[in-house]
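#struct-help
A.M.: can someone run this one for me? Single chain, 259 residues.
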Amino acid sequence: MKGFWDTKTNNWDYVGYTAMYNQVYDALKSVNPRIQVGGPYLILEGSGTQLGDPTQQVPILPRDWQVLDYWLQHKHGADFICLDRTAKADHDPLTYPPDQMLAFTGWLQSIAEQIRARTKLPIWWSESRFDSGPWNYQAAGLASMMLHELKGGSAVTLSWQPQGVASDKYGGNWQALWSDTRLTGGGQPFPYYWAFRAFHQDFGPGTKLYRATSSSPDVEVLASASHILLINKRDGTTVVKLNGSPVSLAPYQVRVLNQ
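D.P.: on it. Structure tokens below:
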């Protein structure tokens, strides 16, 4: 899709893309019908702040739906639909405080639910990124995005470049899972590693989710038969009552408890 931007229409050339996609789909399936093929890897727009500029409107924008609806109607077939999304829109020029950025993560669930109303194809997040910040803040943001992807019915989320680059911001903690192994003492897990591991091991495919609610949007919860995941989206220690028992959460902590 990224090579199909049309400056005349100020949108993706979804007709040209779909024609290319169908050729690739037919060719791959002719080799082996079991090859998994999907698209369109669309970057979804809109931060949801409703400030007037299109980049701040509620996802999914009308021109996004033009792309998705055309592809869904004219594709020869697909095994999944894949999407690209940051916590806020990539082209939104505004800077938001940490609490607002963390509030944006809920859009991932809304987007997934809207997509599922259009198609039963499994939803793959080819990219779902959170504006990086110090240590636990980033882990809380990325964990919250995965929580809402999962609750929205998404099937797959991909993590790019799991190894950090020491020269990048925050010592390589730039949405990576572990520190730069090219340096002595590298390969140490960043806070996001533990959240990613929890979703993979404790809430993986086929895990039945149980109803769990929080009285505050700043504390999010996910529950299975064997584990409870808590996310503190506050920049301060928070004590919550879990089934009547107090549990202390450090600032921006992602914590998994056994049931």
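A.M.: thanks! Residues 115 and 146 are 16 Å apart (CA to CA).
D.P.: also worth noting: The first strand starts at residue 5 and ends at 6.
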